[in-house]
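Team,

Forwarding the record for the chain on the shared tracking sheet. I've put the sequence and predicted structure together so nobody has to dig through attachments.
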Amino acid sequence: QGRTYGNDVNILRGSSATIYGIFVGSTSSFMRVYNNKVHDINQLSTTSATQGIYVSTTSTLAQIAVFNNFVWNINVPATGTGIVYGIYVLTSNSAIPDTVAFNSVYLAGTTTGNRASHAFRKGSATGPVRVYNNILHNVRTDGTTGIAYAITKTTAATVVTSDNNNLYVGTPDAQHMTGGAGTTNYSTLADWRAGNSSDGLSFSENSPFVSATDLHIQTSVPTQLESGAVSV
């Protein structure tokens, strides 16, 4: 069993290529990614992607769990089209679902670049992923056509089982969508539920984080997050 845990990851000097806070490549065993803080990931390229936590494995024996991580402050140039991802699970075991749970992702910032941003993204239609008890908070504004998403998947056929999440994009509009599946966007949580038969117990709430750099929840503020989780 492999483990990546307890790390404080930041890339202050920046990169001019696709950049990752934590990268999990091919593995044929159990892999756990937990209790990490991924932040201040600085991208210098205007076209390359920037990813907080990235998981990619095609082994039929692999099982991945990403849980109890904080991801925030992913920085990109003022212009450009390089996509932003908080947590990206590219492929997964076709027999045993991967699990993404109890993570807090906070994407914020404003640029003139027409780039997309995804708090959580499931790539590839192969293999299911369970997405539970996460705070997926994306209030980025990029250009005039860039779209900020809380949760997306590559195609409508991509298997994502999700619930008990906080899916927040501020006030949904043309540039702030709760979800996306392939080329279909879902503006509100109700739209996402209806289109994907998921997140029936999820909600959309501006998370009362302690601060922009501390994604714990303020204990003195009433919130739907309280007692809102489910066993996974």
